Amino acid sequence: MRKLLLLVLVLITGVVFAGRLFYLQVYDTSFQKLSENNAIKIQYNYPQRGYIFDRNGELLVSNQPSYDVMVIPRDVEPFDEVELSGLLKMTVEDLRIRLEKATAYSPRLPSVVIPQLTKAEYASLSEKMRKYKGFYIQKRSLRDYQINHSANVLGYIAEADNKIIKQNPYYQMGDLLGKQGIEMQYEDILRGVKGVKYIQKDRFNREIGPYKNGIYDTLPERGKDITLTIDAALQSYGEKLMVNKRGGIVALEPATGEILALVAAPNYDPALLVGRERSKNFTKLWYDTISKPLFDRVLQGEYPPGSPFKALTALIGLQEGVIDTEETIYCNGGFRYGRNRVLRCHSHRSPLAMQGGIANSCNAYFCTVYKRTIEKYSTPQEGIDHWREHLLSFGLGDYMGYDLPSGRPGKIPSSVTYNAIYQYPTYKWFASATISNAIGQGEVLLTPMQMVNFTAAIANRGWYYKPHIIKNISGGDTIPTDFKKKFHTTIDPEHFEPVVEGLYDVYNYGTASHLKVPGIEICGKTGTAENYTRVDGKRVQLTDHSVFIAFAPKDDPKIAIAVFVENGYWGSRWAGRIASLMIEKYIKGEISRTDLEKFILNGSLEEEYAKPYSGEPFRINQ
Amino acid sequence: MAVGRGFIKLDWITIFLYFALVGIGWINIYSASFDDSATGFFDFSQIYFKQLVWICLSIVLIIFILAIEAKFYERFSSIIYLVSLASLLGLFIFGKNINGATSWYVLGGFSIQPSEFAKAATALALGKYIGDMQTNIRDFKHQLQAFLIIALPALFIIPQPDPGSALVYAAFVFPMYREGLHFVYLLLGFFLAALFISTLAFGVVWVSVGIVLVSTLIYVRNRKRNKKTKLLNYAMAALLCIGFVFSVNYIFNNVFEQRHRDRFNIVLGKETDAKGIGYNTNQSEIAIGSGGWTGKGWTQGTQTKGNFVPEQQTDYIFSTVGEEWGFLGSMVVVTLFVALIIRVLQLAERQKSQFSRVYGYSVGAILFVHFFVNIGMVTGLLPTVGIPLPFFSYGGSGLWGFTILLFILVRLDASNSHYA
After folding, report:
1. How far is B136 from chain A (nearest CA, A)?
2. What is the rounded distance in angstroms from the CA atom of residue A304 to the CA atom of residue A541?
3. I need a labelling partner for A165 at 20 to 30 A (CA). Which of A24, A374, A444, B59 fits?
4. Are residues A354 and A207 located together in one domain of the fold?
5. What is the mean pLDDT of residues B341-355?
6. What is the CATH number of the domain that holds A403?
7. Sign of CA dihedral B307, B309, B310, B312
8. In this structure, are A56 and A198 located in the same domain?
9. Which chain A residues have any C-beta within 8 angstroms of a chain B C-beta?
10. For testing contact with chain B, the best of A24, A37, A198 (most B CBs within 10 A)
11. Domain ranges of chain B
12. Is B381 in the A-facing interface, judged by CB distances under 8 Å?
């Protein structure tokens, strides 16, 4: 026994140590990270962001160097706060708050003290910064905009926030990344890869050379340039036309699905969101809740489409076989349904067959076709769902899968929608209850982007490519294959021709006959969409939205366009004019109808927009 | 001279383990101290080169120790012990203060730490005393004298101040127990240590309540079996314990220095301050923990390179082993130590003379305490007590001290058969 005591203690100690070592070295892996944090400093080298070009090779966005004042709190030694805050042009209080925030975020990781200094500011600072231990200047590349339009398309870049840093370990505090538009959608391509240098430090935090002789170090990789499908001239022209109006223009090349212009109004100069004034400007834009410049009306605005939707009603009617192109339908100032209820129509020749129905935008005609379509099936539920299937095949009622990070699905009602509204099966509902759908009112909501997509599908007589904005990525990367896939609608190709002729007649002698462009055969459709808002909690009708869709030329479509002008009243008053100018600009390159152009450029709807906020009763549709 | 026969009978296992540990130790010292300032390998300002010189000189020392007749060590043990005591006392006059402790003589460019040699001297003296025909370790008077032999050098070392080195002298309780010291002493020591720790961990009040409860329970139980059990005895014992608890509290708060208190508080989990007082342990744990299975590779340790662990060539050398050689390398070192200590205990057991046996046991016990306290400290299991890892830590005195300690045993063992 006496011989064994020490022996046993030695063995127990050996086992305990083995256990402890196993725990420290193998079981608990947190120490690896800790030792890296301790001893290795990581220095990043930021690459230039890729340039952005338009479809004709015009440079839209390049870079300018920018300089951030950074701080690593644990390295900070006592310093003259007054002097430094003077250099940085901030108050001592602000400087202290920044430092506290930085320490709270991480004592060991860099945080930004002042972002985005200009070259001139940097020059005066760079020499003096050496004096302040723990502070340094990090060079980054900032956007340099060659244009003052397309802000909604391009998006902007901003500092990564905590949420992003947690989600994606690539980003550090102070890193910039795309937050909207193209910058966000193609962030991975545009940003490149930052270079990393690992530096071994000793316990006094002095650098003692590259870690492992730099075998893990990498060089920065420049971001790839991208070419957009946007036509900068057309885009800029569109934005000019939309000054003092709200709404959007979107133009596609029907044969490819390439987005030629994507105008959201009101817009802002992209350069506002660069540099030291960035946050001030951003706040201003963000809190403009009346004109909402950061709200992309083309992609996010869900509107009742109005009469352009009649083209789809006609196509579905033909496909379902409930009407042919010859049959004429009477219109006595409207469509009568239910008990003495009338969906009114304007005065025009009557009766009309399909082509004339479209050209004159006869409500009675399309209500009849719609009602027949729904009633073709034994229940209205079944009818609505068939009708809906056709519409979905045009890319409506869903996010469309285009390559921009914002959007809304719009709304195409289904049997479920109406069962809920009318409390089926307690109460029954019939086709007449949904009759407003026939003319693009009622429960139907589309974004301008969806409107242009169905226009392109009609222009192509039955198929479309997904709208997209990427044309080319430099360095051999191809654009997603989804954009090279043809989507076919559920309507047979032969049904399109009569509808196209009808849309042509809209220009020939119909509702847009005064908007003809000499030498171009345009097909189009006006729309005047009723809409409502809430003023002090009451539902109030506002002046109708002015809507227009068009494509041209008729037989070899080069451009499909949808224009939406909020509260612009008649479709042909604002939207139709803007559409015809855009088509002329794109196809001919110049505008012959300068009076028309002048009217639009100088026209303003601001008075109209101010009405609901005036607090007084107002009149609409003047 | 028994040199010829002695060499043949040398215990080559011990010698192999010794050189394995010294060799591995040097490799790690090289890594821990190597930096770009070296002008070449033979740079005398570099720690690793100095240690290499010490190792080479150790070999000379070993030959010298083995060449001396075994009887010499027993016969001259008292003189060696007295010289050793004198050298410790001399520090109060001639000693040089390095890093806050007056533990060194400085001769020319070299500094010598006598406390490293005093361990071997004390072991010899204790062996001589217990081995004496007249001594009966079961006798209280002799126990007292034996304790005195052990306590004197420790008492001289404490005020240097070097409480860590003094603590090592507790190791001598093991050879005494082996020779017949009643196990009550061990139990008592263990009990007091437990009281000490729990007082610090739970506070005076709770421990006192616990003592009263436990002694009441024992009294009630024994009372049922034996009616003669006297309450007074139990009350006295409980009072003594509570008195001890209060004195611990007093000593801890009034005699200990703040740094000692901090060390205990960190291990007891009462304070966590990774940047300040717990820095050493924390960095050492990070270094070892970041080693993983196989380590970062020789001279590739980031903690080691950055000198994050203080004293990493001396007391914290094991953190370099852990970081650069990982779990596998650490286990090799732990295994080598366990094997060496067990081998030393085997050698001690096979000694025919009581002197040699006591000496051998002392060697094993001293190595064990160093091993236990040092690696326990480096891995964060024990409070920070500054004692070196034998054969590993940088330092000529330490290396020579342990070499002498071990090789006197090897020499004694070599003459075991014909030395009565």
Report:
1. 16
2. 13
3. A24
4. no
5. 93
6. 3.40.710.10
7. negative
8. yes
9. 2-3, 5-7, 9-11, 13-14, 16-18, 20-22, 24-26, 28-32, 34-36, 38-40, 200-203, 208-209, 211-212
10. A24
11. 3-179+273-414, 190-256
12. yes
Check whether residue A365 and residue A408 sit in a common domain: yes
Q: Which of B321, B317, B272 is nearest to B295 (CA)?
A: B321
> Which of A424-428, A553-557, A563-567 has the weakest average pLDDT?
A424-428
| Alpha carbon A351 to chain centroid, angstroms | 43
Nearest CA in chain A to B349: A3
- Are residues A35 and B341, on separate chains, in Cβ contact within 8 Å? no
Question: Of the candidates A228, A256, A278, which is a domain's last residue?
Answer: A228
> How confident is the model over B94-109, as a mean pLDDT?
80
Q: Is A191 contained in some domain?
A: yes
Residue A15 reports pLDDT greater than 90: yes
Q: Which residue has the tokens 């509204």?
A: A421
Taking an 8 Å cut-off on Cβ atoms, the answer to whether A201 and B326 are in contact is: no
Best-predicted range by mean pLDDT (A422-426, B41-45, B413-417): A422-426
**Would you call A372 exposed, middle or buried from its count of C-beta atoms within 10 A (0-12, 13-18, 19+)?**
middle
pLDDT recorded at residue B128: 93
Residue of A nearest to B173 (CA): A6
What CATH number is associated with residue A164?
3.90.1310.10
Q: Which domain holds residue A529?
A: 232-270+299-472+495-613
Does one domain contain both A152 and A240?
no
Residue A3 lies in a domain: no
Residue keyed to tokens 């616990």: B210
Chain A's closest residue to B369, CA to CA, is A10
Nearest-Cα distance to chain A for B246, in Å, is 30
The minimum CA-CA distance between A78 and chain B, rounded to whole Å, is 18
Assembly ipTM: 0.87
B residues 309-328 lying closer than 8 A (beta carbon) to A: 322-323, 326-327
List Cα–Cα distances, A612 to A286, A539, A540, A620, B95, in angstroms: 21, 11, 9, 10, 95
Of the pLDDT bands very low, low, confident and very high (cuts 50, 70, 90), residue B357 is very high
Checking DSSP bridges between strand A258-265 and strand A247-253, what pairing results, if any? Answer: antiparallel
CB A445 within 8 A of CB A410: yes
Domain identity same for A205 and A252: no
Residue A2 to residue B334, Cβ atoms within 8 A: no
Lowest mean pLDDT among A179-183, A608-612, B99-103, B192-196: B99-103
- Same domain flag for A253 and A387: yes
Give A18's contacts in chain B (Cβ within 8 Å): 331, 334
**CB-based contact, B131 to chain A, within 8 Å:** no
A205 to chain B: closest CA residue:
B306
The predicted structure's pLDDT at residue B88:
92
What tokens does B337 get?
């130590």
Domain-embedded: residue A438: yes
Mean pLDDT of chain A: 86
Which residues, listed in sequence order, are joined to residue A41 by a DSSP beta bridge?
A: A199
Q: From the candidates B138, B299, B320, B327, which should be mutated to test the interface with A, based on the most A CB atoms within 10 A?
A: B327
Residues A187, A262, single domain; the answer is no
pTM of this prediction exceeds 0.90? no
In a domain, A583, yes or no: yes
Q: How many domains does chain A have?
A: 2
Q: What is the dihedral of CA B148, B153, B156, B160, to 10 degrees?
A: -150
| A455 and A331 within one domain | yes
Cβ–Cβ of A25/B283 closer than 8 Å? Answer: no
Q: How far apart are CA B293 and CA B305, in angstroms?
A: 20
